[in-house]
TrEMBL record:
This is AMHR2 protein. The lineage of its organism: Eukaryota, Metazoa, Chordata, Craniata, Vertebrata. The gene is Amhr2_1. InterPro entries: Snake_toxin-like_sf. It comes from the Eukaryota. It comes from Formicarius rufipectus. GO terms for biological process: cell differentiation.
Length: 107
């Protein structure tokens, strides 16, 4: 059983085609996820690509906070986090491009 009544940030960058269930278009907002789902965030080095609900189940989302990890080929620029805290998928990028924690931004 995953989290219940969980809200996630919902956003889809204009360059992204397709999408996840419940993802927004252009402007970030909050979406209530179905029971058992958790939050997902996908970023490249400069901005969020997709944020929303993910149906992988609670066991696949052990962290209450967003801890981005590389996805795809080694050295790639795509990072993903799965988390089960309230609006947790909005916390990894800060407020603007280049301010992301652990996303390759200069310190």
């Amino acid at each position: 059983p995953g989290p219940h009544n969980l809200s996630c940030i919902s956003y889809k960058h204009p360059s992204v085609r397709g999408g996840l269930g419940g993802t927004g278009r252009g402007a970030a907002g909050a979406v209530r996820c179905p029971p058992g789902q958790c939050c997902i965030g996908i970023w490249n080095r400069s901005h969020a690509l997709v944020q929303g609900c993910w149906g992988g189940g609670g066991a696949a989302c052990p962290s209450p906070t967003c801890i981005p990890s590389p996805a795809g080929p080694p050295g790639g620029a795509v990072l993903v986090c799965l988390c089960h805290g309230h609006l947790c998928n909005g916390n990894a990028t800060g407020t603007g491009a280049g301010t992301a924690v652990g996303l390759g931004a200069p310190h």
